[in-house]
Write a structure and sequence with these properties.
12 strands; about 775 residues; five-stranded mixed beta sheet
Length: about 775
């Protein structure tokens, strides 16, 4: 039929080209057509080859190349075979297996084919040409062409393992069809048999010409004769192939369409069973499944691959061979909650061969992180920000670079935004080991430089913690030192601008800033004390501090530096920012409340006049630690603590505020401060300690480990609220956010984390109350 249509094509072209080119041509069949194995409704795969380049004349006497003529001939051939008529069409024709696919000419010369196969031919093209057969045109010339490509198809030495390559292709096909009952493509089906045979031929055909055959059943017999298959394997493959091909034929004649799908309806399945010579649908299923299992066992023996089925599924998504539904199913199976968004992010990353080379293992690693969706989104965000995305994807092949980046992407969108803005910092962190070491000091080149340096250093500190280079306590101390450097630089700058006497002002930290325990986005609790008799100097110092607070707390292009909270000064927010030393000491002795005395256990000098700072600390410590405590001081602190619980706007048995709820962070902090108030008089080293340090050094017997574990957990929850969920509060979230939080903290699920927090806080509240009674 192809030969007849090609002859008709030459006649159709005779008006345009009265004289045929002086060179033979042949139409080569591939696939099942080449193997003489067509179905009732098969496509036919063809290529067209002509012998040599040259010229011919068209009807107007103008010269045309042989390429132009045979390309036109191929177009007519396709049209003749596939165009619809009153009785339908002959065949669907596919020329896409020619070199370079659909973008290339429909015909080539022998030399062009051979040059392509020798220089750029791929393994799948070797596999395809196993079934090459001349079917139209000059058959003798065609047979000669097939002989000439044999060294390419069957080289004596292979530099790529065909079995692994073919197995990967098959795995991707299976991933693409998913759970469909496809007798051709499913595991153990027709394609498995063909791939087993072709893999063995490719591996062994270079040294064993007698196993070369375009026909599957003939090739099975020849492979068994040469003992590349056992007789049992030969029997299984032969019988299965005949059974499956019979099913394929019956399906297509029943439905009059090209299909390989097994019917789901029981009546249709029974009808199919009888058409293939089996009495019932149940017996048909047993025979069908038995053959599938037998073929698959041989397939797994013959073809080895390092790709898992999961890798194959990912590959099918990357390469676009899987449809939308299958892609989403693969991504959901991999663990992505929002498969549509994951597919979009993969598309953003999929900008060339560099990504495709690493895609399967990379996505597998991403899927194993606490939230594969978030990790993938973060990676896509960093990739999008790169000036040289191919280079970036190439770096992901490096274990160290990939581990660093995926760790950050798995923990913090906040850090990812920072790295996206500063690719050089990412390079430095990945390739300079010293960049991840603790810094001894932080210097700013100028006041304009402060926001950039602060953001970069804060990011570096966070990544050190995320990578496990530093502990939480070290991270908090580093963040506090960074804040010290910012405050000291800004106030020094303001002193210079105002020409005020630096020795007249001392800046102090309070709260967690005072004990060097701040977290990301923490406020800076501060106290400003001066000592001067001049009203003009006092006014200057007030302006210096006001500008300091404004500069540090105001938004800028680089973002806000910190929120400074000066409300712990006497008289609170309505009083001047700067407090006179003598007036402050008089206030402490006469009017300061117990909660103020308690808060001063965290007082720390930060910047300004060091001599004045030391004097103030001595005065404050004398008041805080050496003044007698009232008889009911412990009960008053407990009552005050219970009042702070009412600050939470939401309540209920399931509501958890890790800071303010009963048994939360404040319980542990208050307990540490109570211990220092009680014992700081006699032990000066027991003053101004971080919370857990004070707990661990407690002079009395308390449940130190229980308190330490609980406080460490609360601080980690707080940290992930800030850097992962990007929330400034301390309320434990619900739903997906809680699930993510649980995985980050290595709990099985959100419910177990929630239950653990409730139980922990209940226990801590009991410890707090019991210890308070001991201290009273």
């Amino acid at each position: 039929m192809v030969d007849a249509c090609s002859l008709i094509a030459t006649q159709q072209l005779s008006e345009r080209f009265p004289k045929l080119p002086n060179t033979p041509y042949v139409v080569i069949a591939l696939g099942k057509h080449g193997g003489g194995e067509l179905n009732y409704s098969s496509d036919i795969d063809l290529i067209l080859v002509y012998k040599g380049e040259g010229e011919c004349e068209d009807a107007r006497g103008k010269s045309a190349t042989h390429l132009e003529y045979f390309h036109a001939l191929a177009e007519k051939l396709i049209q003749n075979l596939s165009q619809n008529s009153g009785e339908g069409h002959l065949y669907r024709v596919d020329f896409r297996l020619r070199p370079e696919g659909k973008m290339s000419p429909l015909a080539r010369s022998v030399e062009s084919y051979l040059l392509y196969y020798e220089s750029r031919g791929e393994l799948w093209e070797r596999q395809m040409l196993i079934k090459a057969r001349a079917v139209a045109g000059d058959l003798s010339f065609g047979d000669d062409f097939v002989r000439q490509v044999q060294p390419f198809v069957y080289p004596r030495t292979l530099f790529q393992n065909p079995t692994e390559y073919i197995a990967r292709i098959k795995s991707r096909i299976e991933a693409a069809i998913g759970v469909e009952e496809n007798v051709k493509l499913r595991a153990g089906g027709i394609r498995d048999i063909e791939f087993i045979v072709q893999a063995l031929q490719l591996v062994n055909g270079g040294k064993n010409p007698d196993i070369r055959s375009a026909t599957t059943l003939d090739a099975i017999a020849k492979l068994a004769d040469r003992e590349f298959l056992s007789r049992e394997e030969e029997s299984t493959l032969k019988d299965a192939y005949i059974f499956f091909r019979t099913i394929e034929h019956r399906l297509q004649t029943m439905l009059n369409t090209q299909t390989h799908e097994m019917p789901g309806d029981e009546r249709e399945l029974t009808s199919l069973a009888k058409r293939v010579g089996v009495d019932s649908s149940e017996a048909f299923r047993r025979k069908y499944e038995s053959f599938l299992a037998g073929v698959r066992k041989i397939f797994d023996t013959v073809l080895s691959t390092k790709d898992s089925t999961q890798d194959a599924g990912i590959s099918s998504v990357i390469e676009g061979s899987a449809g939308t539904a299958t892609s989403l199913r693969v991504l959901e199976h991999l663990g992505f909650r929002d498969a549509k968004k994951a597919r979009k992010n993969i598309s953003a990353l999929n900008c060339g061969s560099a990504f495709r080379e690493i895609a399967a293992p990379l996505l597998d690693e991403i899927a194993k992180t606490p939230s594969g969706d978030m990790t993938l989104q973060n990676l896509a965000a960093i990739h999008t920000a790169q000036k040289f995305p191919d280079q970036f994807l190439g770096q992901l092949k490096e274990d160290g670079f990939r581990k660093l980046l995926l760790t950050v992407c798995a923990i913090s969108p906040r850090f990812v935004k920072g790295l996206a803005k500063n690719p050089l910092l990412l390079e430095m962190l990945a390739y300079d080991p010293q960049s991840l070491e603790k810094k001894q000091g932080i210097a700013f080149q100028s006041s304009e430089d402060i926001p950039t340096v602060k953001n970069d250093e804060e990011l570096r500190i966070g990544i050190r913690y995320a990578l496990g280079v530093s502990s939480f306590d070290e991270m908090a101390a580093e963040l506090s030192h960074l804040a010290d450097a910012v405050v000291a630089t800004v106030v020094s700058d303001e002193f210079t601008n105002s020409r005020a006497a630096k020795r007249s002002l001392a800046l102090f930290a309070l709260g967690k800033y005072g004990t060097q325990e701040i977290n990301f986005d923490s406020d800076l609790d501060m106290l400003f004390i001066s000592e001067t008799k001049s009203a003009a100097t006092k006014d200057k110092l007030e302006k210096v501090v006001a500008r300091l607070v404004q500069r540090v707390s105001s938004p800028s292009e680089g973002g806000k530096l910190y929120d400074i909270d000066a409300r712990l000064r006497p008289e609170g927010k309505n009083a001047p920012l700067v407090v006179d030393r003598k007036a402050y000491l008089a206030y402490l002795q006469s009017r300061a409340s117990l909660w103020e005395r308690q808060s001063l256990t965290r007082l720390r000098f930060v910047a300004g006049d060091e001599k004045l700072g030391a004097e103030v600390l001595n005065n404050v410590h004398a008041f805080v630690y050496e003044s007698p405590l009232a008889k009911n001081w412990a009960q008053e602190i407990v009552a005050m603590r219970k009042k702070t619980e009412t600050r939470s706007k939401v309540s209920g048995s399931d509501f958890i505020d890790i800071k303010l709820s009963a048994g939360g962070m404040v319980d542990v902090e208050f307990l540490a401060q109570m211990l220092q108030l009680k014992f700081g008089a006699n032990e000066k080293t027991f003053r101004n300690l971080a919370t857990l340090h004070a707990i661990r050094l407690s002079p009395i017997s308390i449940e130190k480990e229980k308190l330490a574990e609980a406080y460490a957990l609360f601080r980690k929850v707080e940290t992930h609220l800030r850097i992962t969920l990007e929330e400034r509060g301390t309320v434990v979230p619900e739903g997906e956010k809680l699930e993510l939080l649980a995985k980050l903290l290595q709990f099985s699920d959100g419910r177990s984390l929630h239950h653990h927090l409730l139980l922990t806080m209940k226990n801590i509240r009991q410890v707090f109350l019991t210890t308070a009674e001991q201290l009273a």
